[in-house]
Amino acid sequence: MSNRFGKVAVLFGGKSGEREVSLKSGNAVLAALQGQGVDAHAFDPATRDWHELESFDRAFIALHGRFGEDGTIQGALELMGIPYTGSGVLASSVGMDKWRTKLLWRAAGISTPDFELIAADSDFAAVESRLGLPLFVKPANEGSSIGISKVKQAGDLQAAYELAAKSDPLVIAEKFVGGGEYTVGILGASALPIVRIVPANEFYDYEAKYLRDDTQYLCPCGLPAEQEAQIRAQALQAFQVVGGQGWGRVDFLMDEAGKHYFLELNTSPGMTDHSLVPMAARAAGISFEQLVIKVLEQAHVG
User: Fold this and answer.
1) Are strands 7-11 and 58-61 parallel, antiparallel or unpaired?
2) Catalytic one among 251, 261, 268, 275?
3) Which of 87, 144, 145, 275 is catalytic?
4) Do 214 and 107 have their domain in common?
5) Catalytic residue among 93, 266, 268, 275
């Protein structure tokens, strides 16, 4: 295995707001690779010089958020000619930006909840009226539910905007869809079994994702087989429209009438003990150890 992949840098940590989650993901990936004889080494871009990567043959990206999932590290690896896992520069950059992802999906005829871009001078009452209450407010370029609020009462949108704007100047207000939260893992040219997420909190926030043990994950997800197959195929299309490669995750919501709406794209999914792609892979008969090898096999330049 060592000869097959050469010297592998597992990139994790970094300096985004998702550093702590990335440390968990990266340590899990590192242990799984080393346990299978891969010559894998930890590499934290926040503490090491980028030029040290020139001694590696491949890079497994387990970074989340800015400077790791947004096309920046992908561009650096492209310049150095080092094959890396996951999507390329363009798809990583677009996928990190929820607003531009939605614009692409809408242009391609892929369903996504109604949304508006809001700013400090927006007519917040008018936005509340157009989208209805409750609604969600989120930074366009953040992950792990950082900076997200659920606005339930008229007049609360401005405060939610101000919270989100602390994380990113680009802020989205999004129509509430309340029939259930789901996700589709992508591995190569296949969509993995759908996972339904049932948070004990009001919505699937940072605490529900990483800190609580009472969030429920259902796989099988409970949808009829034909409907699940259709959604998985559309999730793969949504991933490919953005230019996704290697692996990723596409989240969607279901309304009370059973119609689904794709929510956002993740081009560097979590690999923690609470993470969804490993869970979906297990349901497809793929162990965590097999998953990290399959991802690493698809490392590319360009």
Assistant:
1) parallel
2) 251
3) 144
4) yes
5) 266
| 235/261 Cα distance (integer angstroms) | 10
Range(s) of the domain holding residue 13 = 2-85
**Is 141 one of the annotated active-site residues of the chain?**
no
- For the question of residue 161 being annotated catalytic, the response is no
Residues 53 and 107 in one domain: no
Determine which helix (DSSP H) or strand (DSSP E) holds 238, and give its type and residue range. Answer: helix 225-241
Residue spans of the chain under pLDDT 50: none
Q: Residue 122, Cβ neighbours under 10 Å: how many?
A: 16
The per-residue pLDDT for 144 is 56
Of 47, 67, 85, the residue that ends a domain is: 85
Domain with residue 236: its CATH number is 3.30.470.20
At 1-48, the pLDDT tens digits run 668 999 999 999 999 888 999 999 999 999 999 999 999 999 999 999
Identify the pLDDT of residue 18.
Answer: 87
Q: Is 93 a catalytic residue?
A: no
Domain count, the chain: 3
Tell me, yes or no, whether 184 and 279 share the same domain: yes
Integer angstrom CA distances of residue 266 from 21, 69, 125, 184, 272: 14, 8, 31, 10, 15
Which of 16, 17, 18, 167 is catalytic? The answer is: 18
pTM of the predicted protein model: 0.92
Q: Is 132 a known active-site residue?
A: no
Active site residue 210: yes
49: annotated active-site residue: no
pLDDT at 214: 77
- Residue 2 has a pLDDT of 66
Same domain as 289, residue 194:
yes
Q: For residue 249, list its beta bridge partners.
A: 185, 266
